C-alpha cells in the first residue's frame, strides 16, 4: 500500500476492507503517519468516522474537514479555497450536502491548480462503516469523483464489508480493493508478532513505568499471537491490558492474561474469552456482591446504550450513580473503554458491546448487559430528569423576548451558550432528545417507567416541546410520540393525550419551531377546545395577550398546511405512503427560473429536505431524487444529499423522469429523449421524436413499475417504449387515426394534450385538443377504446383509477365518469360541478375534485358525494392521494395535508349540503358590545359579544359589501354593491330605514347625525331625514371612508391611486389630499382631529398630520393609545397585521421600536375580513366562522 501511494498505479482509490478487529484502522493510521513525514509531505488530509460522535458519524463535515486540511497543507490551496469562502455561495456551501461541499470547496477552486501537479496528494478516510447508512453512498461517490477529476489525488478508504461498496465497484471499476481477511495466516501472525514485540519491549514499557525492568519474552509473545487468532483488536487490547496504569504491574498482568488464555488450547475464534478475562478485573468469577454487579451493569450498560457519548458528570445523572463510583469502574476497564481528556468514556471497539449483549457468547449472567433492562433504566431516569426540570419559559425570557423567534429572543435577553447550558443542562437536553430511543426497546410493564412517562405526558408535554424547539431538535418530537403510541392501548387516556400531542405538533410545527413560547401564545389557543391536550394545558396560556373565542372544537381532517413558498407543480406520495414530495418550477418572461423540491413526512408534515433545481423527478420508492440545473442532472437521496452520479447534457432539459428500475430519462430541447442507467450513468440510448408544443405536463413519464416510458411526439402521437432497454413498443395515435370509435367528428389538425399512466402501469389515458378521450393497453400499445367528449371551455382535466378501469374527465361545468366496457369507453355518470380545477383517484376509487367550493370527495361505488374539504386554489391545483388511501394532499403555493381516515366514504347519500358562505364585511360597536357581520349570500347578522351569541339575522339582499356602527352603537348600517343601504337598530336588529345610493357601494361610516359612503360615488346622507345631502363629484372612485364624531370631517381612500381625501362635511369641500404608498384598510380620526391614522392592509400604520399635511410612516405610540378602535393591553397598542397571506396580531411594546408579533393566526384559518375595537379583534372567515381575539378588560398602563 505504501508503494501504491508513491507509485504510478492507474488506480486512484485504495479500498481496504476487513472484518471487525482485523486492523484496518491501524494500517490507515500507519500509512497516514508515513505520508505526513516532512520528507514525503504527501498527506493532504485525513478523516476518521466514528459512530459515537455526532460530528463524525455522518458525512456532513467530511469534505469541509478535508478542504480545511488542504488549506493547511498547501498555501496555494489555501488561497483558492479561502477566496471561495469569501463569496456568499462559497460560505453557504459549508452547510450544504456533501456533494455540494465537494464541488464548491474543492473541485471548482482547485481544478486549475491541481492539473499541473505531478506529486501525489494522499487523502485517508477511515471506518466508512461507522458513517450513517444514508451517507455511505455520498462518501464513496464523492471520493470517486475527487480522484477522477484530480488525477494527482489518491484516496485510501477503510471499511468493514458493505454490500453497496461491492455493487459500486462492480459498476464503477478502476479502484483497488483489498480484503484483509484474505491475507495468509502466517503473514498476519508475523505482523501481530512485530506489533506485540515492539509495544511490549523494555523501551516502551519504561515509557509507561519508568522503574520497571520488564519486557515480554518470545514465548509470551508467541502465546499472545496464538490467542489473537488473526484479530488485531485482541493484540492491541492485550497491550492496553498489560500496560494498564491502574494495575501498574505489566509482568503480573501478562501472567494473568496468559493463564486465562491457557485454559483454551485453540486460538480464540472471537473475543469472548478475551473480554471475559478483562472484565474479571471489575466483576470476579462467581461474584455474589449484588452491588458490584449492579454498578458494573449500570455503568457499562449506559455507555453502550446511550445514543451519543456523554461526559461522566452527565452520565451520572442518567444512571443515578456517583461520579467517583463510575470512575472506579472505568479505571479497571481502561483496555476496553477509553476515557479521554474531555472526560467522555468511549468504547474502543464495537466487538465489546456486541459480546456483552449477546447471551449466547457472554455466558456469565453477572457480565451480561441486558438491553431491555439497560434501556428501561435509562428511560426511567430520563423521565425523572425531565419531570424535575421542565417548566414553562424555562429560560425565563422577558416580556419582549418571549414573543420573538428563538434566536432573536436569546439575543435580546443576552442569553449566551453557557447560560443556555445552565438553564437546560446536558442531562436534560439528552433526556428530551433521546428518551423515546430508550423507551422503544424498554420493558413497558415496568411500573416506574410508565409512571415517569405518564407524568411527562400529563404535566410536561408542552414544556418538552419548548425545550426541543430551543435546542433545535423539534423535528424529533413526532417520532418520539409515534413510538409511544404504537406501544399503548388505543383506549387509554394516555393514548388520547399523545394522539392530541401528535396532531398539535404537526399542525403548529412551523410556529413552534420558530419560537418556542409561541406554542403557548399562538398554537395552544387555536387547539380544538374539546381535545384532551387543550383541557389539560390551556392554563399555560394564562400569560397570553389575547384569549380566543370561536376556535375549532374538534380536530378536523386537516393535519397541517405546509408552505412551499412557490406555485406547486406536482405532488406525490412514496409507495409506502410515509413520504410526500412537492415541487415547483418558475417561469419569468417565458424563461425557466430555479425552482425547489421539498420532501415531507407524510403523516405529520415535518420537513425533511429541500433540493434546488429547474426540473425534477423522483422514484416511486423515493430512493432517488433527480434535479437538473445548467444542463446537468444530479441525483440526491431523500435527505437532500447529492450523489456524485451526474449526467451532463448538451441541450436544455425540458423534462425529467425516474424509475425504480434504475433508469433516468430526460427530454431535451433538441427533440431527443436520453435514457441512462442511474447506477453508473451509462447511456442506454437516445431517441428522436420528442415534441412538447401543445402538450400539458408531465411530458415524460415512466409507468410505476418502470416497465414503460411514454413521451409526446408530433402528429398526435404518444410514443411508448420499454422503460428498461428503450426498445420501441408503439406509437399511440391519439388523433385522427385513433379509430372509428371516436366518431365522425375526428379532425386531422389537432394533437393530444394530456396523457397519464394508471397506477398499476397497465393503461395510458389521453385527451386531445379536439376533445377525444382514448385508453390504451401499455403491454402492446393497443387501443382499448376512444370516445368524443362534450366540452365547454378551454380547460379540461383527466384522471385515471389505479387499475385503469375508471376515467374521469372535466370541463368548465361537468365531471364525467367513464369505464371500459367490452373494448369501448362507456359514460357512467355526469356530475354537475362548476370549474373543476384538478382531479385524482384513490386506490379504493374515491374521486377527489378540486373546485372553487373546496375539495369534494366522491365515492364511485355508491355514486355519491360524502365530504367537502375546505381549500382555495387557482386554475390548476396539484392533487394526490397516498397509496394506502389514508391521506390526501393538495397544493397551490401552500400544500394542505389531510388525514381522511375519519371520513366515512360509505355514509348514506345526503341531500345537497348547505354551502358555507363567506363573511364579506364586519364592524364592531365603539364599546365592543355588538358585532355586525355581512355575508356573501346577502345575510346580515347582529351578535352580542359579552357573552358571545348571535342576536338576530336578517336578509339584506345582494352580497353585503360593508357594515358600520354609529359612535353610540344604537344604529348600524349595511350596504351592498347594488347601492342598497339598510339602517338597523343596534339593540334589537330591527330595520330602521332603507337608502338607495349609486352602484358599486363599498364602504359606509356613521356619525350621530350623518352617513357617508364610498364607492363609485362619495355621498353624504342625513340620518334624521334619511335623504341624500351631497355627492362629492371630485373625489372619484373610493373604497374606504371614515367620519369624525362631530360630523364635521370625513376621509376617503381612493380605490386605485392610493390617495386619501380630507373633506369638510359642512362646506362640502376638499381640504387636503394625501398620497400614500399602500392600500388602506382602516381610517380613524384622533379625538382632537389633529391627525388621521391610517392602517394598511398589511397592518402598517401611517399618521396623517391634518394641521401641516405631512405623513409619518410607522406607528406612533401617543396616537395609537388615543384611538377609540385600537385594543390596548396594559396600555400597549395591539392590532391585526398580515404579510404574505400570514395573519397575526402585533403589539407596539415601548421598549422596542419594531412591531412584535404576539399571536400568529394558523394558516389554515381562511381569514378574509377583520375588524377591531378597544378590547378585541374579530376575524371573519371564508367558511363563515367568526373568531374573537379578546383582550383582558384591565387597561392598566
From TrEMBL:
SMART domains reported for this sequence: WD40
PROSITE patterns on file: NACHT, WD_REPEATS_2, WD_REPEATS_REGION
Domain NACHT: 12-161
Keywords: Repeat, WD repeat
InterPro entries associated with the record: NACHT_NTPase (IPR007111), NPHP3-like_N (IPR056884), P-loop_NTPase (IPR027417), Quinoprotein_ADH-like_sf (IPR011047), WD40/YVTN_repeat-like_dom_sf (IPR015943), WD40_repeat_dom_sf (IPR036322), WD40_rpt (IPR001680)
WD repeat intervals: 953-985
Family annotation (Pfam families): NPHP3_N, WD40
GO cellular component, one term: transferase complex
Name of the protein described by the UniProt record: NACHT domain-containing protein
Species this protein is from: Amanita muscaria (strain Koide BX008)
Amino acid at each position: 500500500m505504501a508503494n501504491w501511494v508513491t507509485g504510478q498505479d492507474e488506480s486512484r482509490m485504495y479500498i481496504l476492507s476487513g472484518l471487525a478487529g482485523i486492523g484496518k484502522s491501524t494500517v490507515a493510521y500507519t500509512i497516514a503517519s508515513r505520508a505526513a513525514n516532512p520528507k514525503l509531505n504527501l498527506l493532504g488530509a485525513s478523516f476518521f468516522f466514528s459512530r459515537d460522535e455526532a460530528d463524525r458519524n455522518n458525512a456532513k463535515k467530511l469534505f469541509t474537514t478535508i478542504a480545511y486540511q488542504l488549506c493547511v497543507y498547501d498555501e496555494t490551496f489555501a488561497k483558492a479555497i479561502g477566496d471561495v469562502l469569501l463569496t456568499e455561495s462559497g460560505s453557504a456551501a459549508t452547510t450544504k450536502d456533501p456533494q455540494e461541499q465537494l464541488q464548491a470547496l474543492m473541485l471548482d477552486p482547485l481544478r486549475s491548480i491541481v492539473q499541473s501537479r505531478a506529486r501525489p496528494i494522499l487523502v485517508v478516510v477511515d471506518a466508512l462503516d461507522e458513517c450513517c447508512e444514508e451517507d455511505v453512498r455520498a462518501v464513496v461517490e464523492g471520493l470517486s469523483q475527487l480522484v477522477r477529476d484530480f488525477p494527482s489525488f489518491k484516496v485510501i478508504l477503510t471499511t468493514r464489508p458493505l454490500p453497496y461498496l461491492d455493487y459500486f465497484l462492480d459498476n464503477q471499476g478502476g479502484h483497488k480493493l483489498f480484503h484483509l481477511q484474505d491475507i495468509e495466516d502466517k503473514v498476519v501472525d508475523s505482523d501481530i508478532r512485530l506489533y506485540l514485540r515492539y509495544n511490549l519491549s523494555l523501551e516502551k514499557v519504561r515509557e509507561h513505568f519508568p522503574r520497571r525492568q520488564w519486557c515480554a519474552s518470545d514465548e509470551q509473545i508467541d502465546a499472545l499471537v496464538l490467542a489473537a487468532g488473526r484479530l488485531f483488536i485482541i493484540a492491541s487490547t492485550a497491550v492496553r491490558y498489560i500496560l494498564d496504569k491502574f494495575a501498574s504491574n505489566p509482568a503480573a498482568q501478562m501472567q494473568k492474561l496468559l493463564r486465562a488464555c491457557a485454559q483454551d488450547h485453540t486460538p480464540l475464534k472471537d473475543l469472548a474469552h478475551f473480554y471475559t478475562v478483562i472484565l474479571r478485573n471489575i466483576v470476579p468469577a462467581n461474584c455474589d456482591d449484588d452491588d458490584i454487579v449492579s454498578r458494573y451493569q449500570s455503568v457499562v450498560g449506559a455507555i453502550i446504550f446511550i445514543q451519543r457519548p456523554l461526559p461522566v458528570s452527565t452520565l451520572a445523572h442518567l444512571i443515578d450513580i456517583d461520579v467517583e463510583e463510575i470512575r472506579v469502574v472505568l479505571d479497571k476497564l481502561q483496555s476496553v473503554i477509553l476515557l479521554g481528556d474531555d472526560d467522555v468514556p468511549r468504547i474502543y471497539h464495537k466487538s465489546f458491546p456486541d459480546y456483552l449483549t449477546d447471551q449466547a457468547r457472554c455466558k456469565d449472567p453477572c457480565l451480561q448487559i441486558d438491553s431491555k433492562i439497560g434501556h428501561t433504566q435509562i428511560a426511567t431516569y430520563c423521565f425523572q430528569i425531565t419531570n424535575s426540570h421542565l417548566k414553562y419559559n424555562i429560560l425565563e425570557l422577558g416580556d419582549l423576548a418571549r414573543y420573538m423567534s428563538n434566536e432573536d429572543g436569546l439575543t435580546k435577553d443576552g442569553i449566551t451558550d453557557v447560560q443556555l447550558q445552565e438553564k437546560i443542562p446536558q442531562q436534560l437536553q439528552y433526556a428530551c432528545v433521546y428518551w423515546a430511543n430508550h423507551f422503544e426497546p424498554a420493558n413497558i410493564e415496568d411500573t416506574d417507567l410508565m409512571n415517569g412517562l405518564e407524568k411527562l405526558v400529563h404535566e410536561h408535554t408542552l414544556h418538552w416541546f419548548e425545550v426541543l424547539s430551543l435546542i433545535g431538535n423539534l423535528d424529533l418530537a413526532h417520532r418520539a410520540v409515534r413510538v409511544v403510541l404504537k406501544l399503548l392501548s388505543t383506549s387509554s387516556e394516555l393514548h388520547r393525550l399523545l394522539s392530541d400531542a401528535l396532531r398539535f405538533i404537526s399542525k403548529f410545527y412551523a410556529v413552534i419551531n420558530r419560537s418556542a413560547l409561541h406554542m403557548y401564545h399562538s398554537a395552544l389557543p387555536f387547539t380544538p377546545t374539546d381535545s384532551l391536550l387543550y383541557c389539560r394545558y390551556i392554563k399555560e396560556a394564562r400569560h397570553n395577550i389575547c384569549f380566543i373565542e370561536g376556535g375549532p372544537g374538534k380536530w378536523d381532517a386537516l393535519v397541517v398546511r405546509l408552505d412551499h413558498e412557490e406555485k406547486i407543480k406536482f405532488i406525490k406520495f412514496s409507495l409506502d405512503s410515509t413520504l410526500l414530495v412537492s415541487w415547483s418550477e418558475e417561469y419569468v418572461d417565458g424563461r425557466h427560473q430555479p425552482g425547489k423540491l421539498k420532501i415531507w413526512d407524510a403523516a405529520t408534515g415535518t420537513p425533511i429536505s429541500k433540493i434546488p433545481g429547474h426540473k425534477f423527478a423522483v422514484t416511486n420508492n423515493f430512493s432517488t431524487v433527480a434535479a437538473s440545473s445548467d444542463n446537468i442532472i444530479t441525483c440526491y437521496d431523500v435527505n437532500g444529499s447529492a450523489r456524485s452520479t451526474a449526467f451532463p447534457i448538451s441541450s436544455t432539459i425540458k423534462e425529467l423522469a425516474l424509475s425504480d428500475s434504475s433508469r433516468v430519462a430526460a427530454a431535451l430541447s433538441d427533440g431527443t429523449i436520453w435514457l441512462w442507467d442511474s447506477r453508473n450513468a451509462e447511456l442506454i440510448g437516445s431517441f428522436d421524436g420528442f415534441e412538447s408544443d401543445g402538450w400539458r405536463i408531465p411530458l415524460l413519464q415512466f409507468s410505476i413499475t418502470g416497465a414503460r416510458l411514454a413521451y409526446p411526439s408530433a402528429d398526435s402521437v404518444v410514443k411508448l417504449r420499454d422503460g428498461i432497454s428503450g426498445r420501441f413498443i408503439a406509437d399511440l395515435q391519439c388523433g385522427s387515426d385513433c379509430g372509428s370509435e371516436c366518431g365522425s367528428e375526428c379532425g386531422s389538425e389537432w394533437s393530444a394534450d394530456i396523457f397519464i399512466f394508471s397506477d398499476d402501469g397497465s393503461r395510458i389515458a389521453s385527451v386531445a385538443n379536439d376533445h377525444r378521450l382514448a385508453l390504451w393497453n401499455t403491454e402492446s400499445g393497443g387501443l382499448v377504446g376512444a370516445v368524443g367528449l362534450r366540452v365547454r371551455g378551454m380547460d379540461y382535466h383527466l384522471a385515471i383509477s389505479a387499475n385503469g378501469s375508471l376515467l374521469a374527465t372535466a370541463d368548465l361545468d361537468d365531471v364525467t365518469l367513464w369505464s371500459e366496457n367490452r373494448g369501448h369507453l362507456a359514460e357512467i355518470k355526469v356530475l354537475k360541478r362548476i370549474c373543476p380545477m384538478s382531479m385524482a383517484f384513490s386506490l379504493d376509487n374515491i374521486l377527489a375534485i378540486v373546485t372553487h367550493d373546496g375539495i369534494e370527495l366522491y365515492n364511485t361505488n355508491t355514486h355519491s358525494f360524502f365530504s367537502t374539504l375546505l381549500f382555495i386554489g387557482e386554475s390548476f391545483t396539484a392533487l394526490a392521494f397516498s397509496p394506502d388511501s389514508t391521506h390526501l394532499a393538495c397544493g397551490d403555493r401552500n400544500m394542505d395535508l389531510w388525514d381522511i381516515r375519519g371520513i366515512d366514504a360509505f355514509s348514506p347519500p345526503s341531500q345537497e349540503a348547505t354551502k358555507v358562505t363567506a363573511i364579506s364585511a364586519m364592524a364592531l360597536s365603539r364599546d365592543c358590545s355588538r358585532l355586525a357581520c355581512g355575508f356573501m349570500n346577502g345575510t346580515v347578522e347582529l351578535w352580542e359579544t359579552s357573552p358571545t351569541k348571535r342576536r338576530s339575522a336578517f336578509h339584506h339582499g345582494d352580497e353585503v359589501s360593508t357594515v358600520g356602527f354609529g359612535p353610540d352603537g344604537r344604529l348600524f348600517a349595511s350596504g351592498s354593491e347594488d347601492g342598497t343601504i339598510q339602517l338597523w337598530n343596534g339593540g334589537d336588529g330591527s330595520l330602521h330605514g332603507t337608502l338607495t345610493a349609486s352602484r358599486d357601494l363599498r364602504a359606509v361610516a356613521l356619525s350621530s347625525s350623518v352617513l357617508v359612503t364610498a364607492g363609485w360615488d362619495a355621498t353624504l346622507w342625513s340620518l334624521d331625514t334619511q335623504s341624500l345631502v351631497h355627492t362629492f363629484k371630485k373625489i372619484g372612485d373610493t373604497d374606504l371612508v371614515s367620519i369624525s364624531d362631530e360630523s364635521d370631517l370625513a376621509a376617503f381612500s381612493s380605490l386605485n391611486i392610493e390617495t386619501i381625501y380630507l373633506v369638510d362635511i359642512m362646506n362640502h369641500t376638499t381640504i387636503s389630499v394625501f398620497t400614500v404608498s399602500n392600500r388602506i384598510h382602516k381610517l380613524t380620526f384622533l379625538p382632537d382631529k389633529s391627525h388621521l391614522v391610517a392602517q394598511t392592509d398589511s397592518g402598517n400604520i401611517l399618521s396623517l398630520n391634518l394641521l401641516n399635511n405631512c405623513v409619518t410612516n410607522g406607528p406612533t405610540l401617543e396616537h395609537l393609545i388615543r384611538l377609540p378602535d385600537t385594543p390596548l393591553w396594559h396600555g400597549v397598542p395591539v392590532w391585526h397585521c398580515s404579510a404574505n397571506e400570514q395573519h397575526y396580531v402585533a403589539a407596539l411594546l415601548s421598549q422596542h421600536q419594531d412591531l412584535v408579533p404576539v399571536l400568529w393566526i394558523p394558516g389554515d384559518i381562511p381569514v378574509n375580513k377583520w375588524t377591531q375595537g378597544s378590547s378585541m379583534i374579530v376575524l371573519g372567515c371564508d367558511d363563515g366562522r367568526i373568531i374573537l381575539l379578546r383582550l383582558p378588560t384591565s387597561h392598566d398602563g
